[in-house]
Amino acid sequence: MKGKIALITILADDAQKLKKFYQDVMGFEVQADHGQYIEFQSEGVRFAVCGRAFLADATGIAGYKEPKRGHSFELAFPAASPKDVDKIYQELIKKGAKPVREPADMPWGQRTGFFADPEGNVHEIFASL
């Protein structure tokens, strides 16, 4: 097998609430909405939100219904410049993203700001310094 990711799916307690966030706040267009599975148009890698209970039923794995603990993934959204990181971060917060950490210059050579979606998944907006 060649290592390649074709789809990233965020598991959700409330798939429609996350759909609204990724559509209205993050600017993704809905490609398909099947209620508990929503796929967005995304360049490069397919991106979706799926209800935990729906995936538990589809796979037969009851563990998908267990409460989420900790953080197991992060999405990183690129900005055109470090100045744009600050601007976009403030826009995301005004639209409803939860602030986690204001943009700052990071030791790995990027300006990065961290925010969360309505279910607490932490993501970042970044640009190279």
Walk me through what this model shows:
26% of the residues lie in helices and 35% in strands. The chain has 2 domains: 7-65, Roll (2,3-Dihydroxybiphenyl 1,2-Dioxygenase, domain 1); 76-128, 2,3-Dihydroxybiphenyl 1,2-Dioxygenase, domain 1 (Roll), CATH 3.10.180. It has a 4-stranded mixed beta sheet. Strands 5-8-7-6 form a 4-stranded mixed beta sheet, covered by helices on one side. It has helices spanning 15-25, 52-59, 82-95; strands at residues 7-12, 30-33, 37-40, 46-51, 76-78, 98-105, 110-116, 122-128. 25% of the residues are buried. The model has no long low-confidence stretch (mean pLDDT 95).
Would you spell out the secondary-structure blueprint of this structure?
Layout: E1 7-12, H1 15-25, E2 30-33, E3 37-40, E4 46-51, H2 52-59, E5 76-78, H3 82-95, E6 98-105, E7 110-116, E8 122-128
Parallel strand pairs: 1-4, 5-8
Antiparallel strand pairs: 2-3, 3-4, 6-7, 7-8
Structural domains: how many? 2
Which regions have little confidence, pLDDT < 50, spanning 5+ residues?
A: none
What's the CATH superfamily of the largest domain, by name? Answer: 2,3-Dihydroxybiphenyl 1,2-Dioxygenase, domain 1
- Give the overall shape, derived from the CA principal axes: globular
- In angstroms, what is the radius of gyration? 16 Å
Q: What is the architecture of the largest domain at the second tier of CATH? A: Roll
Name of the CATH class of the largest domain = Alpha Beta
DSSP, total strands: 8
Major beta-sheet overview: 4 strands, mixed
Q: What is the average per-residue confidence, as pLDDT, rounded to a whole number?
A: 95
Can you give the helix content as a percent range? 25-40%
Q: Which structural category do the helix and sheet elements fall into?
A: alpha/beta
Strand order of the largest sheet: 1-4-3-2
Distance between the termini: 35 Å
What is the name of the CATH topology of the largest domain? 2,3-Dihydroxybiphenyl 1,2-Dioxygenase, domain 1
Order of helices and strands: EHEEEHEHEEE
